[in-house]
Design a protein that fits this description.
Blueprint lengths: L7 E2 L5 E2 L12 E3 L13 E2 L8 E2 L8 E2 L24 E8 L13 H18 L3 H6 L3 E5 L3 H5 L4 E7 L29 E3 L10 E2 L6 E8 L10 H19 L8 E4 L3 H6 L3 E7 L3
Antiparallel strand pairs: 1-2, 3-7, 4-5, 6-7, 7-9, 8-9, 10-11, 10-12, 12-14, 13-14
């Protein structure tokens, strides 16, 4: 099954959104600022090659809101009905785009989809919410993506949809969003949007908003490689993350005599998708 990069898989088994600089072709995508039907589909007609009338497969629209369950994030496609964004919701579509001609003949589970989606949706998420690279990794807000169903894909649909979501597929529930999440991470976001973890460690525990009881807070990120660097291997990335995060968390806590820190580092798949950062956690209930 295609690795879902809507929320990066981590060595600590957390799923926090990542970031990677990449340009998007405005002729092939729609953002929530550009309402309407996507014009970037490749072969968006269904039906057999016969005299039968074909049915147009329409892409979803950006700027709409939905109420999702955490399990929906792990699904390949999603057809949850939109709701009025003035009503309670926990997902907002900020981008609908096309895979383009390169994947016109691709199989439904082609791994190249992950790279395309990661580049487009990460950049779109940061632009929409106002997050920088570090904040995008440390916020409880992330993004999830979906594609057409297998049947729609076989008929020629090649769009994908990216939503802001408040959590991961492992969360007990998704955080409710404001009427729009546009600009919600600009400046210094409130604790309701920041990632914390309750437990003895950060491993295997989904993040919660820092307004909830917690034992760990994602306080900084550190860079473990440059854009053009090849993946140096798990061991080196882990050691760099440990050493850099020890210093980074110590500085964040104003160099106390004793302090606890943890780190979340990423593997080769995320490196190849564009991520070059690890997350540093401070042991704190604040």
């Amino acid at each position: 099954m295609l690795v879902r990069l809507a929320a990066l898989a981590t060595a600590a088994a957390l799923a926090l959104g990542g970031c990677s600089p990449a340009e998007s072709d405005p002729t092939e995508e729609q953002s929530s600022e550009q309402q309407g039907q996507s014009g970037g589909q490749s072969g968006d007609q269904s039906g057999e090659q016969s005299g039968e009338e074909t049915e147009t497969i329409e892409a979803p629209e950006p700027g709409v809101c939905r109420v999702l369950e955490p399990a929906d994030i792990a699904e390949a496609s999603n057809d949850t009905e939109p709701v009025d964004c003035a009503e309670p919701h926990n997902a907002e579509t900020f981008l609908v785009a096309s895979f383009g001609d390169e994947l016109a003949d691709a199989e439904y589970d082609d791994e190249r989809q992950g790279q395309v989606v990661y580049d487009r949706c990460t950049k779109g998420f940061m632009k929409f919410t106002g997050a920088n690279e570090s904040l995008a990794l440390r916020s409880v807000l992330s993004w999830a993506w979906w594609r057409p169903t297998q049947e729609e894909w076989d008929a020629g649909a090649r769009w994908f949809r990216c939503d802001v979501v408040g959590g991961t597929d492992q969360s007990a529930e998704l955080v409710e969003l404001p009427e729009t999440a546009k600009g919600v991470l600009l400046g210094i976001p409130g604790d309701r949007w920041m990632s914390c973890v309750q437990g003895d460690s950060v491993s295997g525990v989904p993040p919660v908003p820092c307004t909830e009881p917690h034992d760990w807070r994602a306080v900084t990120t550190i860079v473990v490689g440059q854009e053009k660097d090849k993946y140096p291997g798990d061991r080196l990335v882990e050691v760099l993350s440990r050493d850099y995060c020890s210093d980074s968390v110590g500085a964040w806590m104003n160099y106390p005599v004793d302090y606890e820190f943890a780190y979340t580092w990423f593997h080769k798949a995320e490196w190849e998708a564009g991520n070059r950062r690890s997350i540093c956690w401070a042991g704190t209930k604040e």
